[in-house]
Amino acid sequence: MNRIITRSLLVFVSTILPSLSFAESTLAIKADAPKTYTVVKGDTLWDISAMYLDSPWLWPRLWQANDYIENPHLIYPGDKLNLIWLDGKPVLTLKPMVRLGPKVRVQNKEAVTAMADSLLLPYLEFNRLVSDDDLKHAIRVLGSSNGNKYLSADALLYISGQHKQTDWGIFHPEQSFTRDNRKVTVLKQVAWAELKSTGTDTTGLQVTKQLQEIMVDDIALPLADKNVTESSLIFYPQPAPSDMEVKILGSIEGTQYVAENQVLVIDRGASDGLVQGSTFSLFEQGNAVRSIDGQSSQVKQAAESKIQLPDYQIGSLMVIRDYDFFSLAIITESLQPIGQKTLVRAPVAVNE
Question: Does the global pTM surpass 0.85?
Answer without folding.
Answer: no
